[in-house]
Amino acid sequence: MIFAEKIKYLSYDDLAKLEYGRLLWKSARGKSLLLNHWLHFEHPHRERFMEFQPIVERVLSADPKNDEYLDQELEKEGWSLRTALREIPPIIGRIPFR
């Protein structure tokens, strides 16, 4: 299956997490806010995030132009871009951006 066909199976929620996650991840402050939020002891997905943090960070750090290559590399490890996106935790409540 070519990448263009695969990408159409992504949900809008997954695509939004990827797009907005990458936007925030680009800046040191945004990355810090996300990590603090996801690693907060009250976040319901904290433990799961900690388990898959390397894959989440890898996906958020990747250049969007290389998503097809990233997908191929992830498949060699038993993942796909689609399954990796499912491990990006939601933003719950409010992050103080100011």
Compact overview of the structure:
The protein is 62% helix and 0% strand. It is built from six helices and no strands.
Describe the structure.
- This protein is an all-alpha fold.
- The chain has one domain.
- It has six helices and no strands.
- Helix 2 packs across helix 3.
- The longest helix has 16 residues.
- The N and C termini lie far apart (43 Å).
Order of helices and strands: HHHHHH
Low-confidence stretches: none
Helix-strand makeup class: mainly alpha
Beta content: under 5%
Shape: globular
Mean pLDDT: 86
Q: Helical region count? A: 6
List the SSEs and their pairings.
Layout: H1 3-7, H2 12-25, H3 28-38, H4 46-61, H5 67-76, H6 81-85
Helix pairs in contact: 2-3
Task: Provide keyphrases for this structure.
6 helices, single chain, mainly alpha
